[in-house]
Design brief:
This protein is an all-alpha fold. The protein has 2 helices and no strands.
Amino acid sequence: MNIIYVLLAISVLVALGFFITFILSVKSGQYDDVYTPSVRMLFEDELVESTPEPSEDISKNPINKKTKD
């Protein structure tokens, strides 16, 4: 039973070590992307079609009124 406590303590210490190393590497800029911003202008942008905003009341719009013949 004592070995479980020892292994648990060791695993917590190893996990804390990895977590501290990860935090320090993020703060030092290890994961900053320095390549993509320089080539971003070379990527083709996808065209996004804008949709017209719907009017509040379609019946008030004279173009949409139906005329009776």
